[in-house]
Design brief:
alpha/beta, Rossmann fold, 51% helix
Length: 415
Amino acid sequence: MRQQQVLIIGSVWVEPNSSAAGKRMLQLITQFLERGYEVTFVSAAQKSEKAVDLISMGVHESFIELNNISFDHFIKKLQPQIVLFDRFIMEEQFGWRVAEYCPKAIRILDTEDLHCLRKTREICLKNNIDFSQEELLKQDISKREIAAILRCDLSLIISVFEIEILKKIFKIEESILMYLPFLFDEIDIHQQQKWKYFEKREHFIFIGNFMHKPNVDAVRSLKNEIWSKIRKGLPKAEIHVYGAYMNQQIEQLHNEKEGFIIKGFVEDAAQVVGNAKVVLAPLSFGAGIKGKLTEAMLCGTPSITTSIGAEGMYDEFPWNGFIEDNFADFAIKAKELYLNKPIWKQAQLNGVTIINSIYNKEKNGKLLFNKIHQIEQNIEKHRVSNFLGSLLQYKTLQASKYMSKWIEQKNRLIH
């Protein structure tokens, strides 16, 4: 009997050491492999040396081209039972081809985070206006992303906050949405005993992918608004800034005299986070679950972030440190967490509770595949009940198909 096939169409190759999105994708791939699926991962992006070796895990890899008939032949031959799009832009590019040449396949969108939410917040911050429902609804990216969600059989949403936005503001039916946060093993007592003690740790840390604009903004805020306030009370403390794809804008903030140390890319994030005393993440915009903050919890490192940083990540549990939006208060709490062992220890335990309660890999993985099997059993009924999605699929199939074929023909003439 032929193995169940899952095709994952990635906007980028999987880089778990570079970004939370890379870790997330690796978690999903592992879930499919553990349940006996044959996994094929494809992307039109260029592969960097930071990409994980998926082939060694038993995953098939292939490069694909945008606006090219070769993908049609590829998917007709593969005939996967499930197609997973990594971000809505991949559904825009390839969703119509999947619908046409592999109509029975369940189409799943992994949103990573709501791009329209992150982008609208960035626009509002840039223009010095308050974020509002009206601003979110009027953005073109909102229309594009919501259309992609509607066209898919299921969308995986990483944050409870974003699920509420989709249901309440965009009126999306719950049947095509699934809350699926990061998937982690439980932190047991043996793991906790391996963590470095309070006295053995030193310095603050920030870690993030610098192709991600919220991270660039956060480090600039640290340097310009927060660090001097922290350093006044802790003259020997340092902050170490790590991350992939660091740009000149960040590198020029390096100042050893001020203890603001730019370190760059690190292969093993857990090691440097596990050596640090406190993670700082003053995020002014963004969306989804912040990998740097779950990483902190997994390493027993308390954190201070903003309400946007912690959004949708901790339910009603106490935070793994402090949540502060005012930068002066942020600095005060940073010093308190750095110096006060009982507060630091309690914050660490809060992180354990959050990971074990919300991000349980076994529990959430089971829910995901129960949902997939439920859709599989009656795919036609599931699609009929999503009338708006069927309508958009029909219209998009026509429009995208002919636009793509026009580009394809144009490319042929050029070459």
